[in-house]
Amino acid sequence: MAKAIVKTQFEFEWQRNLYVGKVRDVYNINDEYLAMVVTDRISAFDVVLPKGIPYKGQVLNQIASKFLDATSDICPNWKIASPDPMATVGRKCEPFPVEMIVRAYLTGSSWRDYKAGAREICGVRIPSGMKEHQKFPEPIVTPTTKAEIGDHDQNISKEEIISSGLVNKEDYEKLEQYTLALFNRGSEMAAERGLILVDTKYEFGKKDGEIYLIDEIHTPDSSRYFYADSYQELFDKGEQQRQLSKEFVREWLMENGFQGQKGQMVPEMTEEFVQSVSDRYIELYEKITGEKFVKGSESEDILSRIENNIKNMLARL
Question: CA-CA-CA-CA torsion for 51, 107, 292, 314, nearest 10 degrees?
């Protein structure tokens, strides 16, 4: 099995610091640029799992790069270039302390909350009598606060965000406008691939007074897709949807008694399981992009390749 890249420790000229997130290692270059390496780490329920997934970082980075390019006419984004299959270099922005989640269907965590009796998500009222995977009349925006590693993101309403001063009213309304426009574009692109973009999250930042889309976009880690051709039949039968997302990993964890709660142990990740997740991510890439996935060479020193590609990119800035 190919080697998973779960840690980087590069040193670049003018490097100020290194931020290690759940999945990404982000290098601050002179407080002006960011070099983001998408590792093969995998997280679920806000917990980083003990084993990495080969090629997962490449899959996520290349999908995000493609969609950042495809939506740059809607909203400025942080990307300057992707010099390596696992890395992107872009502008350093000051992040907003909220994630903008948009949902078009009642599924995943929103369904779990709904089934438990909730009829409101982030201040948005949800009608009674809805079924799992049912489409909302219009997509809804359900923001969360951004958590530190190990903490859970917290649902928060638009009114709470503005009244608490997390984001001012003018900026928040712009974030909502961008969120819905990006989701609409993502939905159109998904439809061309025979998919339904069910829900996703966006993160934004500000630089020189301008709002930028930052981080990843429309990847299977940040988004959920259903297959369009079987949606209605499965919904009518009350059966589970065929989907492209990281939900299959969450479901495997739940089946094995893990939901990120205190005292719970992550189940053993066998080589067979890790390989199956890697294969699934490659399948996701090919279905979402319509392109054949080209694996990086297993014989090369991947860390040296990433480091050299980023160095060469930074030298040109």
Answer: -60
Residue 133 per-residue DSSP state: T
By CB atoms closer than 10 A (0-12, 13-18, 19+), residue 270 is exposed
pLDDT at 2: 84
Task: Name the strand (E) or helix (H) holding 144.
Answer: strand 144-145
pLDDT at 248: 86
Q: How far apart are CA 240 and CA 237, in angstroms?
A: 9
Q: Which long-range contacts (CB under 8 A, 24 or more apart) does 108-115 make?
A: 108/198, 108/199, 108/224, 108/247, 110/142, 110/199
The model's pLDDT over 230-272, given as tens digits with 9 standing for 90+, comes to 999 999 999 999 988 788 898 899 999 999 999 999 999 999 9
Please tell me whether residue 235 adopts helix, strand or coil conformation.
helix
- CB hemisphere CA count around 247 (13 angstroms): 16
Q: Helix (H, G, I), strand (E, B), or coil: what is residue 255? A: helix
Coil vs helix vs strand at 262: coil
29-49 burial by CB neighbour count: b if 16+ within 10 A, else e?
Answer: beeebbbbbbbbbbbbbebbb
Question: What confidence score (pLDDT) does residue 149 get?
Answer: 46
* 24 close to 7: Cβ distance less than 8 angstroms: no
Q: CA 270, 45, 113: angle at the middle one, nearest 5? A: 130
CB 92 within 8 A of CB 207: yes
Contact 12, 29 (CB under 8 A): yes
Amino acid identity, position 21:
G
